[in-house]
């Protein structure tokens, strides 16, 4: 039994998934810790401490508690039905980018179809999400949010959706300025150079959060199957 669920893109088994899991130190598919690569001069365990528990993923619908009237089985069936009616999304590729103080892979090319997929998932599957508690809303209601983002937070439990959605695959926690370039270089050599291009998102993954806060793959659903 998981305490929260999320809908993620996670790469299918292969070199990208394997290397990404090793970089972060957590394999979301196997549900187990994995050894980091040994890269001289970098404390990868420290660099990846914050994103580790989520595994290699891109968020489509952020973690949520199940609504009282629903079950994990119903959520699974709902996601399966949703994915059946969606088409795979093809991107030009992924590129390493700095977002604030952390590094992430971001999509290249036209992201309209990806944005539409995420928007639909947030609307169609929201019936399975428990409303935010007052404490949760207060914690997530950051001062920098726009009025529209606060509406999304209240309605869908997360502010960074719809026109504010920016797909990314987080690879580090916050970095000091003098860490950015060395970590970028290491990531290009270890992971980014092996990222497929074009990059296809042809499935979504239901993930569950365990008691320790780490996420596990529950089931993967092909888009358009």
Automatic annotation (TrEMBL):
Q: Please report the name of this protein according to its UniProt entry.
A: DUF1045 domain-containing protein
> Source organism's superkingdom?
Bacteria
Record's Gene3D superfamilies?
Answer: Cyclic phosphodiesterase
């Amino acid at each position: 039994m998981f305490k929260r669920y999320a809908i993620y893109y996670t790469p299918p088994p292969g070199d990208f998934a394997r290397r990404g899991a090793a970089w972060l130190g957590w394999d979301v598919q196997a549900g187990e810790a994995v050894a980091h690569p040994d890269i001289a001069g970098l404390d990868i365990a420290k660099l990846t401490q914050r994103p580790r528990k989520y595994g290699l993923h891109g968020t489509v619908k952020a973690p949520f508690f199940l609504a009282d009237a629903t079950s994990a089985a119903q959520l699974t069936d709902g996601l399966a039905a949703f994915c059946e009616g969606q088409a795979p999304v093809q991107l030009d590729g992924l590129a390493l980018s700095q977002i604030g103080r952390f590094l992430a892979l971001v999509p290249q090319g036209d992201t309209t179809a990806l944005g539409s997929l995420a928007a639909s998932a947030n609307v169609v599957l929201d019936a399975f999400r428990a409303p935010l508690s007052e404490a949760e809303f207060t914690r997530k209601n950051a001062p920098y949010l726009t009025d529209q983002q606060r509406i999304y937070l209240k309605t869908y439990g997360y502010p960074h959706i719809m026109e504010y959605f920016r797909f990314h695959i987080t690879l580090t926690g916050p970095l000091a300025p003098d860490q950015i370039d060395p970590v970028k270089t290491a990531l290009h050599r270890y992971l980014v150079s092996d990222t497929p291009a074009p990059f296809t998102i042809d499935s979504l993954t239901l993930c569950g959060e365990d008691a320790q806060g780490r996420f596990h793959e529950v089931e993967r659903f092909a888009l358009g199957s």
